[in-house]
């Protein structure tokens, strides 16, 4: 019996496309997106931000350094959050129903810049009873630590929790933690996966 439902955020609830941000960066720094990605990856900046090892202000400062720009924090934030698309991939009504009937958790590899903006712009997030965020936990999926932290906030045993994520590696990480998990491939499949487990919708 499912007692807790755990949902990923990016490309499960809110769709995103980093190409939108890279396009804006190209116009500002004169580098193509392949070079931009290479420079960011070279310093592991995105992972450091997601795991809470650097704060947003330091991240923006280092991004300016690697890209040769002089963007203010607010100007950079506007570019960094432009990756998100307005329409959610799961209906608000469905998430609301799950939150009324089950313990509902959000589990996301994210960062303070993104999540603060998302929380202010996507009312669907109000349905979650607790949010487990990589930058707050200090670990990102598929690190076992973040699944352990998630289970600490769940109702029931690991096998009584259902999790969905668009990234198969993160689904497999959840399964290793004893969580029942399936890869997200759209709302219709999610509904099928939930109904197969007796979840009332």
- The rounded distance between the terminal residues' Cα atoms is 14 Å
Rounded average pLDDT: 97
Q: Provide the succession of SSEs.
A: EHHHHHHEHEHHEHEH
Query: How helical, in percent, are the residues?
Result: 40-55%
Oligomer: single chain
The number of distinct helices, counting runs of at least 4 residues, comes to: 11
Could you tell me the strand content as a percent range? 5-15%
- The CATH homologous superfamily name of the largest domain equals HAD superfamily/HAD-like
Q: Which radius of gyration do the C-alpha atoms yield?
A: 18 Å
Task: Based on Cα principal axes, name the global outline.
Answer: elongated
Overall CATH architecture of the largest domain:
3-Layer(aba) Sandwich
CATH class of the largest domain: Alpha Beta
Structural class: alpha/beta
Structure, described:
With 201 residues, the protein is an alpha/beta fold. It contains eleven helices and five strands. It has a five-stranded parallel sheet, sandwiched between helices. The radius of gyration is 18 Å and the shape is elongated. The mean pLDDT is 97.
